[in-house]
Amino acid sequence: MKKILVILGLTLFLTSAANSAFAYSTEGAMYYNEGLDLYSRGEYAKAIESFKNAVAKDPDFIDAYYNMGALFEFLKSYQSAIASYSKINQLDPNDKETVYKLAELYYKVGNTERALFYVNKIAETDDLYSKAQNLKKQIVSYSQKASTANSALPQNKSIIDKFSGPTGLAIDSKGILYVASYTDNCIYKVMPNGQSQLYSKSPLLGGPIGLAFDSMDNLYVANYAKNNILKINKAGQVYTFMDKITNPYYLIIKGNNMYITEQGNNTVIRYKLY
Fold first, then answer.
1. Between the CA of residue 101 and those of 8, 39, 97, 273, what are the distances in Å?
2. What's the confidence (pLDDT) of residue 97?
3. What is the pLDDT at residue 110?
4. Does residue 156 sit within a domain?
5. For the domain that residue 202 is a member of, what is the CATH number?
6. Closest-CA residue to 28 (of 50, 1, 3)
7. Dihedral of the CA atoms 241, 247, 253, 259 (nearest 10)?
């Protein structure tokens, strides 16, 4: 089975279901090719839905699972990516690329036990053995450090997930946690079940720090590096809400008032929302 969607930064290599050595239903192939077309237009969420429809029509559609897993991984929805690759592993346990991918993803989410389970499945005779051994060293090292760190933590403290440069936090009315990533210039959300996924990576984001929700679940972002406040509505649309705020840091919304710490001017701003 040829892996048809491989992420190298933003570069992906695609082929259609018509070129696959496996026979799939007309409807499954239609949804699959639709997914490829949506991907090429940058409509990743819709592409994933098309791949989901493809596997709904053809539960053994390995190519669709692989594409779906690769897109979830690109969007940093690692648990969803694991679910897609796990299905491939069930259908084809001898596919060592998928086994390696599962080891890598479990390592990314901090589940070293499962990561080691999969990395140990790659035998010395497999092409990926050397690469797998390097990953195994990283997993073991991380596991040892985490064990030492966790032994010093209170019993009621746990790690939700790993983020790059996490800063502000906010929770909406449904109990969903949102995390600003200063390093990645994006915002993630963490569902109540602990699954994290990319929420917004708008080009308007620049060094997001403070986050706050209003009573209508609009999210406001202290955009430190771009000196403004952004607003993200419930539909996910992003636009500039306030400009010329020098290095905004934290946000608090109480009633109809928003309070902003303006680090560049050593001031606190109060703004009436309504």
1. 14, 21, 6, 47
2. 94
3. 84
4. no
5. 2.120.10.30
6. 50
7. -110
Residue 9 falls inside a structural domain: no
Residue 7 in domain: no
Q: Which domain range does residue 93 map to?
A: 17-151
Each residue's pLDDT tens digit, 225-253:
999 999 999 999 999 999 999 999 999 99
Pairwise CA distance, residues 11 & 34, whole Å: 19
User: How many other C-beta atoms lie within 10 A of the C-beta of residue 102?
Assistant: 23
CA 193 to CA 199: how far, in whole Å? Answer: 16
- Enter the tokens of residue 75: 């969007």
Asked, for residue 8, whether it belongs to a domain, the answer is no
C-alpha distances (whole Å) from 14 to each of 6, 89, 263, 271, 272 are 8, 21, 47, 49, 50
Ranking 4-13, 30-39, 133-142, 160-169 by mean pLDDT, the lowest is: 4-13
Residues 146 and 34 in one domain: yes
**Which CATH number fits the domain that encloses residue 143?**
1.25.40.10
What are 165's two structure tokens?
A: 């440069």
The span from the CA of 263 to the CA of 160, in Å, is: 29
Separation of alpha carbons 44 and 47, rounded Å: 5
